[in-house]
Structures are given as structure tokens and as C-alpha cells.
Amino acid sequence: MLYAVIMAGGSGTRLWPLSRQNHPKQALRLVGERTMFQHAVDRLTPLFPSEQTLVVTRSEHAPILAAQVPELKPSNFIIEPEGRGTAPAIGLAAIHLQKRDPDAVMAVLTADHYITDTEEFRKALSASSLLAKEGHLVTLGIPPESPSTGFGYIQQGESLGNYGGLPTFRVERFIEKPDLEKATWMVESGGFAWNSGMFVWRVDRIMGEIQKQMPGLYAKLMELSAAIDKPEYEDVIKALWHKVEKQTIDYGVMESAEDVAVIPVNIGWTDIGSWRSLFNLLAVDQNRNSWTGPHIDLDTEDTLVINDKRLVATIGVKGMIIIDTGDALLVCPKEREQDVREIVKELKEKGKDNWL
Amino acid sequence: MLYAVIMAGGSGTRLWPLSRQNHPKQALRLVGERTMFQHAVDRLTPLFPSEQTLVVTRSEHAPILAAQVPELKPSNFIIEPEGRGTAPAIGLAAIHLQKRDPDAVMAVLTADHYITDTEEFRKALSASSLLAKEGHLVTLGIPPESPSTGFGYIQQGESLGNYGGLPTFRVERFIEKPDLEKATWMVESGGFAWNSGMFVWRVDRIMGEIQKQMPGLYAKLMELSAAIDKPEYEDVIKALWHKVEKQTIDYGVMESAEDVAVIPVNIGWTDIGSWRSLFNLLAVDQNRNSWTGPHIDLDTEDTLVINDKRLVATIGVKGMIIIDTGDALLVCPKEREQDVREIVKELKEKGKDNWL
After folding, report:
1. What residues in A contact B313, CB-CB < 8 Å?
2. How far is CA A125 from the centre of its chain?
3. Between chain A's N and C termini, which has fewer beta carbons within 10 Å?
4. CB-based contact (8 Å) between B296 and chain A?
5. Alpha-carbon A137 to chain mean position
């Protein structure tokens, strides 16, 4: 049976001040009337009944997300006491799935990406599950639109044939976030895809790789697995989870795993990692501005304004990001959007927790 | 006897969104801990006992201003049902003063100017009152620091001698707000001063000029004067004030009046007419930024931020004005500050009264 596991543990510091510790990116209405988490569930609904949709998230975020999708029951949520990176989160989901269904195929999906072609997305998941059933660790690759230095890349190797109507390939190698020169070379060469962070595999296969490559994590997962459905589970996870080494699934497992495959997918995928990537998705007026709440402007161009009830007035503003929330305001040129992270870092260092 | 008449009827649209219909510029804490109106009274206190200090303002603003200066009693306030320009406001103050003291000398002063050298200011008022007692209409002229096109100018004529230690001159002519070329010529020529809008004269003299030059206004003022201290006063002013023609004292009276004098004064005068003029007065950090409330920044220069409790975060912002109030936000480069007026105009046209 195919299960969806939505990874919803991140916080999204580059979307500050809208994204906060207690109001994470996944819970925000960034595109349209639905939150990122609701979009993530919506696009799975035709393929996965709710009992086959699991969500990995942190305890403080679970109630917020649960309230947004009432059809998901508490048993759909797998709670991490704290975020330890994608490798532990995926291992945690895998041991829970193994208990329910030792033959489970799990699709590791995200809540912080926006996908415009949801039909093609589901087709890609179906194709991936066919390949995964044969034992491959399948990654969804995004044909690169630009030499982005913000993503890892996957080099395609020999063809593994067509699955569900899509060509599939053995992975030659994973490339960590490159510099611009290397990225440009890869895009021009062809045969490289962005690593979307979406994977499909059999639980026994991924657990086998974790056992081989991350024995420390594997031992802890086994200890935890023995406690599933027992009264001591909460105490066990609390006692051991903070000792789990932080690691990504890419670095911890995928780069050295056997039988890794990639399916390049054209699904209209956007990583909403920052204000600029969101701006690219939103509808704009004739001056290329995107507005949310009440506003009035003179000579404003290429500017993203997100506000709620307060009036935002701009005069002669060009290429800016203006994020106006209840208790904080960000003003920043588009080009500096990556530095929002620095603001959050400084707030943390200064102990300004009420603005985090 | 010398009386101070503080003109506090304006609204200050170029200081939107801090300045509002029901929270006018005079009532704002723009420089230091005192409001503009409090500063205006403070600088008079050593020279004028409170019973000689009158305030002309609109009915909706009187309670706000009265609360800010408790030593002023209701009898100190002269209420205009609505603003009709400086000529009617001054005429209204004059008829009230005439009732109290037919020989009164009135100093027409402002609440929207900031004066750093208050001792020199009081010295100028004393000198002006000596000249005014002799029958002159005295204007305080500001030696121009730059060829500003935002002020009217006064051309000095022959000397009228020294009064109170200050040289005084007959006014050759008043020049309305000039273009840059003319302003530059005047500043380079010398012998021109900015028109500060502060005047000192005997009430009988100004009433005589109003009678001669603005007979329509004079007739209404006489009708009103007859009702002062009578129960029907409120009804009379309400019935006639909206019929009074809007006019400035400069255009309506001063440009054609007899015996007009000017005293150039060095009092550290600033017209806080707009955000930029305020910015010039405020203390700045090493990057020439002025901050009010909580803030965090990266690479921010030459920027004015006014906020209250919300955190303002700026990244890579240069030469901007950011005014963050409870219900509205303004973002505007310094160079565009005059266009704030256009925003207010558009809000008015669109009936967005809650933001006016």
C-alpha cells in the first residue's frame, strides 16, 4: 500500500515576520485562500484516503495543522519532540509505517513547496511507487529552469525504462548546492535535475539503508519502534530524541545508497523558501506589484506588499518587499531577501523571543 | 498689553499617517517628549502669563490641545467651527482681544514651527511689540538658509532703526512661493527673508486693514463681535462662519497693507511641514538614521523610521521615510515626501475617512 508522509517540521525563517516559531510557514495562507499545509493535503486527496496520509511535525505545530485539516485524526500525526533534520524525521515515519504495514511504500512529500500541476504530480507519484516497489529509492527531480544555487542537483544516469508513462533513470550522483559556475554548467549540459526533497521508497528499503549508513540513528529508531502503541512511548521518545544526531536524508543516506532512481517531473514546482519565490507565484497588477490588504500607491513598481488590515501607502517604491504583520514590519529590497535570515538570527541572539 | 495668539488650526496632511483629522500635527510629539503645541506654549511662558495666551483652533481639536496644556482654561481657546484660512482666524482672535483690551498688541504665532533659540525668539517678540505699538504691522522674517521654493519671501526696504536691539526694516514687498530660479536670485541678492507667518500688531491696526481690504470679512466679524459674551454667540458663529471666504492673511491683507515692517530674526526656526523637515531636526545614528520605537536593521542609511510598539526591520534601505502607525504605514523615499499630500487627497476622494 502507498502512504503519503508530509514533512511539516520546518519553520521558514526567510519568510519572517509572517512565519514565526508558533506560526510556521506551512500554516500560512501564502498562495490563494488555503494554507501551504492545506494545499499539500488537497493535492494528495484524489490519490490517498486520509488514513494513508501521515504528517511529521513538531508537537507545538501539530494542533495548528490539525485544525486546518479536520479530516486528519491525531493518529495521522507523527510528532517529533524537536526537529533533528530530515533523516531522523523520515526514519521516525518509517518505523510507524512498518508497524501498520511492513510492505508499505512511503512517499516523502513536503508542505513548503507549491505545485501548480497537481494531476501531473499525482501521476508522478503513481509512477514512482511502481519503481519503488521494485526496490529503488526514487527521487522526484525537477528539470531546472535556471542555474539556481539554492538547490541540490541530481545527475541522471542510465535509463531504467518507462514507469506509469514517465521515463526513469538511475541516479549517477547527488550534487550539493553548487556555485553559480557549476550550476550554469549543469543546466547547459542537460541530464541534471533539482533535488525536490520528495522521495518514494519501500519502508524496508529505507530502513535497510539507515541501518547500514546511520547505525546510531537505526539503534534509536529500533528502541523507539519497540515502544510504539505502548504507554511508555512518550517517555522513550522524549528521552532519546534530543540525542539523535541532526542529519539530512540527502547527506546521511541518499548520496551513498544503492539503487537510487530519479524521475524528472514537470509539475509546476516552486520552493516557497523566501519572499521572492513567493512573489514569483502571485498575481501582479500592471506595474508588477502584488498587494494583499488595503493599499494606496503612487508610482510603485515591482513591489510585494503583504498586509492584513492596516493600510499600506507607498510612494515611488520600486523592487521592494514590504511585509506588514500585527507586531512587526519588514522593509527590504528584493535583492536582499536572503538576509531576512540574518534578522531572525540577530533577534534570537538578542533574546527578542516575542518577535521570533 | 501684549498677547500671544497661537494659530493651531491646521491639520498637517504632509505628516500623514501620523497626523490625522482628529489628531493634528500640533498635538503630536514630533521632537522630544513635548508635543508641537506644548513647545509653542513653553517658549512663550517666560514672556506671557497664561491669561495672555490665546489659542485659535477648530472645535474638534480644542479638547485635545486643552488636555496637553492644563494651565490654559477654556477662555483661552477661540474656536473656529471650521478652518477658513489665516485671515478669518486672525480677525476672529482680534475681535475677542479688542473686547478684553482695545489697546492690545497681538503676536500671531504658530504651533507647527520648531524654534531652537527660544530666548532669541522672545527677544524678537519684545522688539516687535515696540515697533507694533507705533502702528506698524510687523512680520518676523527668517534669513534664508537655502533657496527654498516652499516659503513666501519678504523683501526688506529702508531701515526703521533698532528696536529692542534688533534692526528693523520697512517691507518693500511680499513675494509668493517662488520658482527655484527666483528663489536662488533672492538668496544671492540678500535683503530677502522667508515669511515665517508670525506677525505682531495692534488689534486696532489689523482690524483697520481688514475693514479696508476685506470688507466682507469685516462685516461678519462685527456681527460676531456684537454677540461676544452673549448666549447667542454660538449660534451666530455657526450661522456665519461657513459663509466666510477662505483667505490667507498674506494675500488678503499684508501684500497691500500700509506701514508693514519686517524684523529678520535668527531663532533656529524650522517649519515642520513635512517628514524631511522633521528628519533634519532629529538626532541620527552613525548611519544617519533616526529611529523611534523598536527596530533592527542591516545596511540601513539615511532613513527616518517612526513607529510605536511594532518592530521595524529594515535591510538595505537607503534614504527612505517609514512611518508606522496603529492603522497605517507609509513607505516613501525622502525625495517624494511632498507627494504624501496626494495620498491624503486620494483617500479623501475615495471616502476612506477612517484613514484620514
Report:
1. 16-17, 328-332, 343
2. 16
3. N
4. yes
5. 18
> What confidence tens digit (pLDDT) does each residue in B75-89 have?
999 999 999 999 999
Question: Is B346 an interface residue toward A (CB < 8 Å)?
Answer: yes
Phi, psi of A124 (to 5 degrees): -65, -40
Phi, psi angles (nearest 5°) of residue A229: 70, 10
Instruction: Kindly identify which residue of chain B lies nearest to residue A331, measuring between CA atoms.
Output: B314
- Best residue of A307, A310, A320, A353 to probe chain B, by most B CBs closer than 10 Å: A310
**What are chain A's domains?**
2-273 (3.90.550.10), 276-355 (no CATH)
Strands B113-115, B269-271: pairing kind: antiparallel
Q: How many Å apart are CA B10 and CA B207, to the nearest integer?
A: 23
> H/E element holding B279?
helix B275-281
SS3 B338: helix
Average pLDDT over residues A38-59: 95
Distance CA B225, CA B202 (A): 17
- Helix, strand or coil, per DSSP, at residue A322: strand
Mean pLDDT over A44-61 rounds to 94
- Inform me whether the pLDDT recorded for A10 exceeds 80: no
**CA-derived radius of gyration, chain A:** 21
* Residues B347, A296: C-beta atoms closer than 8 Å: yes
Q: Kindly report the length of chain A.
A: 356
Nearest CB neighbour to A328, from listed B311, B316, B339: B311
Say which residues have a Cβ less than 8 Å from residue B352's Cβ, sequence separation at least 6: A296, A311
- Measured CA to CA, the distance from residue B6 to residue B55 in angstroms comes to 5
Rounded Cα distance between B108 and B6, Å, is 6
Return the percentage of chain B with pLDDT > 90, whole number: 94
Cell of residue B274, nine digits: 513635512
Is the CB of B313 less than 8 angstroms away from the CB of A330? yes
Mutating which of B310, B330, B336, B345 best tests the A interface, going by the most A Cβ atoms within 10 A?
Answer: B310
Judge whether B18 is closer than 8 Å to chain A, CB to CB.
no
Average of per-residue pLDDT values in chain B: 95
Residue A23, burial from CB neighbour count under 10 angstroms (0-12, 13-18, 19+): middle
Question: In angstroms, what CA-CA distances link B119 with A175, B44, B45, B122, B267?
Answer: 73, 10, 11, 5, 8
Strands (E), chain B: 2-7, 53-58, 77-80, 105-110, 113-115, 137-142, 153-163, 166-175, 192-202, 260-264, 269-271, 295-298, 304-306, 311-315, 320-324, 328-333
pLDDT, tens digit, 9 for 90 and up, residues A247-273: 999 999 999 999 999 999 999 999 998
> Model's pTM, two decimal places?
0.86
3-state helix, strand, coil in chain B (%, to 5): 35, 30, 35
* Cell numbers that stand for B5 in this block: 495668539
Give the residue carrying C-alpha cell 526694516.
Answer: B169
CA distances in angstroms from B129 to A16, A291, B108, B179, listed in the order given: 60, 57, 11, 33
Distances (CA, A) of B63 to B141, B238, B326: 32, 18, 22
User: Residue A171 forms beta bridges with which residues?
Assistant: A156
| CA angle centred on A352, ends A350 and A354, rounded to 5° | 170
Q: What are phi and psi of A70, to 5 degrees?
A: -60, -25
Confidence of residue B123 (pLDDT cuts 50, 70, 90): very high
Sign of CA dihedral B9, B13, B16, B21: positive
Query: Is the distance from CB of B196 to CB of B140 less than 8 angstroms?
Result: yes
Report the C-alpha gap between A56 and A80 in whole angstroms. Answer: 7
A322 to B315: CB separation less than 8 angstroms, yes or no? no
ipTM of the shown complex: 0.86
